[in-house]
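Checklist before submission:
- one chain only
- standard amino acids only
- sequence pasted in full

Submission:
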Amino acid sequence: MLRGMPTIAQSLRASVRPRPDGRQPLVDALRGLALLGILLVNVEYILQSVDLGWAGFDSPTDQIVRGLIVALGQTKIFPIFALLFGYGFTIQQSRTDDAVLRQRYRRRMLGLAGLGVVHGIVFFPGDILLIYGLIGWLAFALRTWSAGRLVRCAAWVYGVAAGLWLVVGLVDLVAYTPLPAPTQQVLTTLAAGTITQVVAQHAAVWAETQLVLLLIQGPAVFAFYLIGMAVGRGDLFAAPHRHVVLFRQVIRSLGLPALVVSIVGATATIIGGRLDAIGFALGFLAAPAMAGTYLALAGLIWVRRVGRVLDLARTAGRASLSVYLAESVVATTVSYGYGLGRFGAGPAEGVLWAIGIWLVLAVATRWWLGRFRNGPLEWALRTLTYATPQPLRRPG
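Returned file contents:
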């Protein structure tokens, strides 16, 4: 995976050119695709307990579907969203005075963290918005660093985290201790409880779940946020036609090795038991190369004038915060007892639900944005950020 890195790094440095102003459609498309990937990963822990997931499904079909989600999605998608989060900050930084940006960004991160707390307690304890809010404010202090320094820091943070997970995985091979299974009461509450009972159950595990996610996802979010800040200094996504050579280099150098490591890790995860932790560690190790490959593939698709394939994703990405939270609202209503009661469904059904929910929300977003300037939660967050009501309805 490291063979092509020097050439890739040179190409990245060459991409630091002035950006065109205005909205960047490829970035919106990347956000929309990431939203689909996030739901495909999260639906396992919405249709099942967050402590159990789909580990109990052992039919060949279910294992293949789960293996594909683990290999291609788990730990591979949220870094893309974090990178785009950091990329967006750099765009704001280039357009706003620093003193004004500090106040606005503080309010924005507080709003994001607040949404994360509500989302995590009411709908999905595996929420990541709180972590984004915390990491975003922490990374704000590094806004004056050069692109090279940001990338070096990101590499160290992610490298140390990956190394620690490999150590944990190796220790677990020798001294494996199974985690306690969720109680029948918990499963019954999620499967058949009222909305009040489900929210109470989420509240009971929310703090512990967030701590685990901070340990697992926090370093990756921080590292990719910094990479997004570095990429945002150039025109990699704003003018992707200039970087076809780089996209091809990334795919050739990183794609196949990352996929092989991801498949090995996913296989260990599916086998489970004492192999579970080392499987996760291998997936975590391969995640940066997989994420880079996905970004490069999307860039090539966009440049080759088949952007219509990504058009629906672009629409969803224009209201990414609203779609992200709506995905959880709809998926939990499908799952829990106060809704359709599909809690306990397996991988094959879960993937179909995830794709269907994303498609419906993308179409609904297209309708909404035809009438309004922003998604509803984007509008609310902008109003908080600017500390004054923002226009919502489109003129005319």
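Reviewer check: Confidence is low (pLDDT under 50) at residues 8-21.
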